[in-house]
Design goal:
Elements lengths: L1 E4 L6 H17 L4 E4 L6 H9 L5 E6 H4 L2 H4 L7 H4 E11 L1 E4 L8 H11 L4 E4 L5 H13 L4 E4 L3 H9 L5 E4 L1 H9 L4 E5 L25 E9 L4 H16 L1 H9 L3 E6 H22 L5
Parallel strand pairs: 1-2, 1-3, 6-7, 6-8
Antiparallel strand pairs: 3-10, 4-10, 4-11, 5-8, 5-9
Helix pairs in contact: 1-10, 7-12
């Protein structure tokens, strides 16, 4: 069995795959190896999974690989909803709307008012066009009436450096990255994008508490197989994944890395994929977002 990951060693999807590999191998009674195929925001790996016929390939994929990959780039060689079989959402996390103490000391409502008033004088950073940090901020801008300008970077570490250095005024960051800088006093957490406070950062309010009604956004990592995989094999893999994700040591490792273990079924994941695709497609089309 191979777990195919679309990002390099040390990335969050790679970490998730390696947490799963050993207990999966024990339950399956066969070796489970992690293969890294980085590139195209994980879509190279997703295409490998979609076209696999060996019945021993599972992809550890992120939101975009299973939702809007082909909408952002029509040249993407696979169709997420046709060519991938959802098995399970492994783990989830909200994003943290972050700024710096120098930009604002206001609470959530006050910060959003200041962001609206700033118009295009404020800018926000992301790890790239079409990432969840980018699309999530565009959703936030539409809901909050903001006009902050997008500045893409190579990754979130560069975004944090620019934020602390004053080149940016806000960003949506994974909680594991934001929390360290908030504790050091270099960043301020305005709120999280989940519907309610997150166990990962329980002291951070939700943005709904700041007045953004019905605003909810999460990053998630999921397992998917080729759509051609026979049903009984897919059911067995989904069962194994559910058992692994229930293990206390697995849940603890994911939590320490900034994720809440989920173990959500393939059917629920399929509904999530369709709902997220519809919501993000609306933003992509209304804002004319395209990969460059």
């Amino acid at each position: 069995m191979r777990l195919v990951v679309g990002f390099g060693g040390g990335s969050s999807p790679d970490f998730v795959a390696r947490v799963l590999a050993a207990p999966m191998a024990k339950l399956l009674g066969q070796p489970v190896i992690v293969e890294n195929h980085p590139g195209a925001s994980g879509n190279i790996a997703a295409d490998i999974v979609a076209k696999s016929t060996d019945r021993h390939t599972v992809g550890i994929l992120i939101n975009g690989n299973m939702t809007i990959a082909k909408i952002l780039n029509p040249a993407t060689p696979y169709d997420p909803q046709k060519d991938l079989m959802p098995l399970s959402i492994i783990c989830t996390a909200p994003l943290v709307l972050a700024t710096t103490p120098q930009v604002s000391k206001a609470d959530g409502r006050g910060f959003l008012e200041a962001a609206r008033a700033a118009g295009t004088r404020w800018s926000y950073g992301t790890p790239g066009i079409g990432t969840i940090g980018h699309l999530g901020m565009e959703v936030l801008k539409a809901r909050a009436g903001m006009a902050a300008v997008h500045v893409p970077y190579q990754g979130n570490p560069q975004v944090i450096t620019a934020l602390i250095g004053g080149q940016l005024q806000l960003a949506l960051l994974p909680p594991g990255l934001a929390q360290e800088q908030v504790k050091a006093g270099k960043l301020r957490a305005i709120g999280v994008t989940s519907a309610r406070r997150s166990e990962l950062v329980p002291d951070y309010p939700s943005l709904q508490e700041a007045g953004l009604k019905d605003f909810e956004l999460e990053i998630w990592t999921a397992a998917a197989a080729p759509a051609s995989l026979p049903g009984p094999i897919a059911q067995r893999l989904a069962q194994v994944l559910a058992e692994v994700i229930r293990l206390p040591e697995v849940r603890q490792k994911l939590f320490q890395h900034g994720y809440e273990a989920a173990g959500i079924s393939g059917e629920t994941l399929m509904r999530r994929v369709k709902a997220d695709t519809a919501a993000l497609t609306q933003i992509i089309e209304s804002q004319g977002i395209k990969l460059e």
